[in-house]
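Example record

One chain of 433 residues, shown exactly as stored in the release files.
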Amino acid sequence: MKQSRKKDGENPKQKEPKPNLVRNKPPHLDDIYACLQCGYCASVCPVYRETGWESLTPRGKVYLLKHLIAKDSFFDKILGKKAADFLTGRGRISLEEAMTKIYTCTLCGRCETICHVDIDFHKYWEEIRKWMVENGIKPPQNTIDMYNNIANEEYKNPFMEPVPKRDEWYRDDYRLPEKADILYFIGCMTSYHEYQILLNTLKIFTSAGLNFTTLGTDEMCCGAINTMSGQWDNFKTIAENNVRQIEKRGATRVVTGCPACYRALKKYREFVECNFKLLHTTELVAELIEEGKLKFTKEFKEKNLPIVYHDPCELGRISDYEGKGIFEAPRYILKNIPGIDNILEFSNNRMDSVCCGGGGGLRAVNYDLTMEITLRKIDEAIELGAKTIVSACPNCKAQMSDGVKAKKEKMINSEEKFKMKVMDVLDVVAKSL
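Predicted structure tokens for this chain:
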């Protein structure tokens, strides 16, 4: 058996001291103490609505953070010793459980709309997660795996899909130029899972005669997962890679159909110089309709009417640092589709839209909980009499499609017939060309 050598003055049993969160104060400390603990946030929180757990509301998490950073708190002792219980007024929870509570959130930002002291909760929770990771508190394992997959040159995406698969859906059918004025940034969800949106987007752009291209296999995940899970270490590298590839194509406008990509690409400006204009696909398509560059020849099928439009959180409520959400462009497009005379609205829409359940990386932390949130959304669509749910986000489409499948399974022995389609706005446009 090999004996380990120890250097003078070195204690082999000595471990690196764990970080002291009392010294390493979190960002936006004033917000922690500004919270009035009024509980208004609970009334709009989709997670609380399904779980009933006060500790999962924004105010519950703020309360948790107050204890986390308190002088001589139990958390302080935890981080310095092996004892791993945090005492609250309701009992003991492990450090791991406490951190999971912070991540049990869709980051939908609905709580911001009702907060009496105007805490920017979406940004707040992203930065709190970052602070925790920087202080040695690991995020949930699934988010760590996704982070590692993005950094892996074989994948460059969170789903462990091979890089060559990223453009296989269109490489033979669309001969795109090496350089173009418009660059379509596709995103991982659209490239690997919701590729019908990708094909329909290419069809629309081609039909309108646009000079456009893509990054193909040079595209790397936008990094949204990194920011949502607090793992910012290689976000700058991601930004530099994607911006460099965009510049090689000579694009002056970058368009993406994924709201998560849209927000991540906006963040790039904090790390690298960006000389392109950023648009969501609905903004560009609305512009093409207004200019008469898209000609519709088919009516939307009557059997799929009426439709109800769902506002994605990251496209509307939290899409822009300046507070300018994209609400009207998708509705303008739908109103111009032949056969669609009426667009139903969820009772909470635009700034008050209720999350579909698929945001904030929660799918990776607690998929069953996201399904409960989604099924409530599906039930409301049924009550409205909708036959099709339309959104403008590949993540929303994937989440609500799963919800429709789950609803069908629940009703398999029911005498009631249940039919519901889930479509992206651009799916609707492409079917009408």
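Notes: The chain has three domains: 29-138, 142-290, 302-431.
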